Amino acid sequence: MPTRYISRNEAAYPEILRNYPRMPAGLYLRGSLPDPDRPAVAMVGARACSAYGKRQALHFAGVLAANGVQIISGMAFGIDAWSHLGALEAGGDTFAVLGCGADLCYPAKNRKIYEAILAAPASGILTEFEDGTQPLAWHFPVRNRIISALADLVLVVEARSRSGSLITADYALEQGKNIYAVPGRLEDSCSGGCNELIAQGAGIATCPELLLEVLGVKEYRPACPLPQKPQTASGFFPSERKKRAPSSPTDPDLAHVTFKNSPPASSPSSQASENTSAIPSAPRDPSRREKSPGKTIFSGKEKVPQREDPFQRLTETEQKICAMTREKICSLNDLSTALSLPQDKLCFLLLQLELQGYIEEVVSGFFSCRTPETAHSIGQLAHSV
């Protein structure tokens, strides 16, 4: 199937993308674009997802797609792949927004999903990158703005804290979209990002019927039974006979693998010793003087720690962006011309600097540098992990 280019000046360009700043000048497409007259949901989440995440992605995507909702995702490993798959198995329409050329299937192990999307009558593969463009790391956060913009709401199925999926949620927030998250157990790290979104005010996605109601689908089919084993869709993934860690992001279906080489159960005596060693005592420094209550001992010889300049952590290009925006408020075009950077790459750098607290978008498309004090406090938080 050949790739066709749709310019922003053409009527076929998605009208919904015209409503937001920093959208691509054109799209490269294989297959179909989402139907603007039908609801659409963006489903995103962790690449190294759990069996729980796979089941929820299949279930939500399947029920939504069976009731005419279009599913939009990024065809990455994990939640993305299972979301596409749930829609395809329900006979619905799904759209993959890639971080590479539309002629490339990335990741390669999702080839069957890639081909199934192209074979579906009203699904498609789209990207802002021309054919032959390789999947560079910075392409993926940038393409997330298109995933959220094409949807009526964004559903985060499973995500860790500081996950890349939260970038999509940030874009959705800027675009005025509804954000929903599937809740998870408090001790489950895979659900940390989802639980944080809910704490910050995101909707709690307890069932797909709730989302159908939000989307205005009042008469819908009964929900499909929640799949107990994600491997019901194993025909789309290559069989993996090698034993890998369950958290490996390159293996999209390990729920059926039994790990026989698990460590033997510990004896009671060994457990007791482990419990004892679990609370280490800090070694006593003989050179350290005891401090009296209410007194601060300072000999005058100690060096007062100097506050680190937060801008020293940045790359040379990032420092130039901060220097320019510190002198005056700069537009996206000003920065792109002065730094000789394409706007798509520049948008990614600006997003990272904004998330880390170095700059702020004062109005749409115009940026200003924060003060060093503000950047220090926010940047310190951003670099604490």
Can you describe this structure?
This protein has 385 residues and is an alpha/beta fold. It folds into two domains: 4-236, 3-Layer(aba) Sandwich (Rossmann fold); 310-382, Winged helix-like DNA-binding domain superfamily/Winged helix DNA-binding domain (Arc Repressor Mutant, subunit A), CATH 1.10.10. The protein has twelve helices and twelve strands. It has a nine-stranded mixed sheet with strand order 1-2-6-5-4-3-7-8-9, sandwiched between helices. A three-stranded antiparallel sheet has the order 10-12-11. Strand 4, helix 2 (79-89) and strand 5 (94-97) form a beta-alpha-beta unit. The longest helix is centred in the N-terminal third of the chain and has 16 residues, at 51-66. The model is unreliable at 227-232, 238-305 and 373-385 (pLDDT under 50).
Quick overview of this protein structure:
It contains 12 helices and 12 strands.
What are its keywords?
Rossmann fold; 3-stranded antiparallel sheet
Q: Would you list the SSEs in sequence order as H and E?
A: EEEHEHEHEHEHEHEHHHEHHEEH
Unreliable stretches (pLDDT < 50, length at least 5) are 227-232, 238-305, 373-385
Beta-strand percent range? 5-15%
Give the CA-CA distance, first to last residue: 44 Å
Number of strands: 12
The CATH class label of the largest domain is Alpha Beta
Q: Multimeric state of these chains?
A: single chain
The helicity comes to: 25-40%
- Our count of helices gives 12
CATH second-level architecture of the largest domain: 3-Layer(aba) Sandwich
Order of strands, main sheet, comes to 1-2-6-5-4-3-7-8-9
Average pLDDT confidence is: 77
Protein structure class: alpha/beta
Largest sheet: 9 strands, mixed
